[in-house]
Structures are given as structure tokens and as C-alpha cells.
Design goal:
With 159 residues, the chain is mainly alpha-helical. It has helices at residues 8-23, 30-40, 49-61, 80-109, 112-122, 129-157, and strands at residues 28-29, 65-70, 73-78. The chain has six helices and three strands, in the order αβααββααα.
Length: 159
């Protein structure tokens, strides 16, 4: 069985671009950046401090962001180099954001989010192999149905 792997370098690269994109509107502290990113992800994901702050530090080391203390908070702002990076990648960023939002909306409409919650709960239990195989077959059938739909839509759009 082939295992689907996530491409972490691509995800990290996308996350970096998102932070730069959020900062193009002006300086923000880490909490504000997290809030803006949460809005972008339709409130389905909020980055943890463990990913946000190391990424900000990396962006700072690359000269894309500068920071300074204001009271107890640290504010972050794009440098000219950071602004150039956002300008160069803005269309790509917007396409990725729109694609993500569409995928989230579809996931909610077809019940995928509730399915994932159920899987999370059930994963803590011992599952009968026969039941597991039936669930797997249904999921594969649903995936195949969506793939056929995708092919039909792509074929129609090519005319």
C-alpha cells in the first residue's frame, strides 16, 4: 500500500509566504500575525507559537523581516527585501489561499471535518479489522467518485 506523504518543505515555504503576506499591511506582533493567519484559514487552523516564532526568527535572519520591542510585545515588519518577496509571490499566495479556502468549504459540505473528528475519537479504540476494511473501502469509493467528477469537470472546461 502506498502511503501519501506531506511535503513539509512546501508547507513551510507556503507558511513563510503567508507570514510575509500578512505583514504587507503593516507591523504586527506575533499574536496579531496568528490572528490574521487564522482568518486566512477560515478559523480551521491557528499556528502554534512553536511554528510561528521560529519562522519569524528565520525570516528575520534572512533580512525579510525586522522586529523591535514595544512594551512587552515584539512587533514585526517587512523590510524592502520582504516587500519585494511578497510582490513577486503575491499571485501565487492568493491562489494558494483561495485553493485552501475552497478545499475547506468543500470538506465541510461533504462532512469531512466531522469524519476526521470521528476518526480521531475512534483511533483511541481497538478497531475490528473487518470494520476497518469496510471503512477503508467506503473512503476509497468516495475518493474515486470525486476523481471521476474532477475528470468530468476538467473535460467540460477544456471545451
Amino acid at each position: 500500500m502506498r502511503v501519501q506523504k506531506f511535503h513539509l518543505p512546501r508547507i513551510r515555504g507556503f507558511f513563510r509566504l503567508l507570514i510575509l503576506y500578512v505583514l504587507k499591511n503593516g507591523p504586527l506582533h506575533g499574536y496579531g500575525i496568528a490572528n490574521e493567519l487564522e482568518k486566512i484559514f477560515n478559523y480551521t487552523y491557528r499556528p502554534s507559537p512553536g511554528i510561528l516564532y521560529p519562522t519569524l526568527k528565520s525570516l528575520e535572519e534572512e533580512g525579510l523581516v525586522i522586529s523591535w520591542k514595544e512594551g512587552r510585545r515584539k512587533l514585526y515588519k517587512l523590510t524592502e527585501k520582504g516587500l519585494d518577496e511578497v510582490s513577486k509571490s503575491e499571485r501565487k499566495i492568493k491562489n494558494l489561499i483561495n485553493g485552501f479556502k475552497q478545499a475547506c468549504d468543500l470538506s465541510r459540505k461533504i462532512g469531512l471535518t466531522s469524519l476526521l473528528k470521528t476518526i480521531w475519537k475512534v483511533s483511541k479504540c481497538k478497531i475490528d479489522p473487518n470494520t476497518l476494511e469496510k471503512v477503508r473501502e467506503h473512503i476509497l469509493a468516495a475518493r474515486e467518485l470525486l476523481r471521476k467528477y474532477e475528470e468530468e469537470v476538467l473535460e467540460e472546461e477544456s471545451f
